[in-house]
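Thought: the user wants the 3D structure for the chain below. I'll pass the sequence to the structure tool as-is, report back what it returns, then summarize two notable features.
Action: structure_tool
Action Input:
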Amino acid sequence: MTLTRRRSVLLAGLTGALVPVLGTTAEAAVRYYSVAPGVRLSVRSGPGTGYTVVRVLPEGAKVPINCQTPGTTVTGPYGTSNIWDNIGNGEYVSDAYVYTGSDGYVASRCA
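Observation:
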């Protein structure tokens, strides 16, 4: 019988206790945000209405926000904003259609 070894890392928690973390890196959990109810949202190839539509999200969709960047100003259900959310490689949606609970940035700026 072969035994497999796992590498683990111990990190100091807020209380000073050591907390085991499996693997060599700890990844942040991805958070998903809801698109406005009743909206089929266009996903564009860049941060603006002048970019090509690459696909359309169905009603009730939830999206991850990898990073955010300024672009074309859009008015939607959640106000007027020039913030665009990167939801995938070469995929952007207007933040005015995504419920983040904030009028500002909720993720890091895209590089």
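Final Answer: Structure generated. The beta strands are 8-12, 18-22, 32-35, 42-44, 53-56, 62-64, 67-76, 79-88, 91-94, 98-99. The CA atoms of residues 42 and 83 lie 15 Å apart.
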